[in-house]
Amino acid sequence: MAIASDSGPDRGTVEATREDIQDSLGLVPGFWELNDEDLVNEWPNFKRYALEETEIPAKYKELIGLAIAANIKCPYCQHFHKEAAKMHGATEAELNEIAFLASWTARYSSLIHAMDYDIETFKVEFGKIGEHLQDQMADD
């Protein structure tokens, strides 16, 4: 049995959120036409990670987003992250490298899964590879 609740955001909070979206983006895109509670809850995270400084520089966040978008086959995400990466200075060479890396990760994931390769063996082998690479870097 569902219990009715009036604990949603008040009108002032909803309107302040819409005004913040308008001020931040220049308009309130149609995809932000969420119910009031979702709008108020979702916008701060979107704003923080898409528009503000975080631990990961903006260009890298957008390149990561583009690689993910390519793998989940989302044209909306692909367009958003590619254009945002360009706005943050991504070069054509970087965009091309991300396209390759997105396919590379998915390809090796498919290969290893199709082999039904043991994850514990993989972890041990990767640990040994990591040690070897660190030793090589220390020698340089």
TrEMBL record:
Pfam families cross-referenced by the UniProt entry: CMD
Domain Carboxymuconolactone decarboxylase-like: 42-116
Source organism, top-level taxon: Archaea
InterPro entries xrefs: AhpD-like, AhpD_core, CMD-like
Membrane spanning stretches: none
NCBIfam families in the cross-refs: ahpD_dom
Protein name in UniProt: Carboxymuconolactone decarboxylase family protein
Organism: Haloferax namakaokahaiae
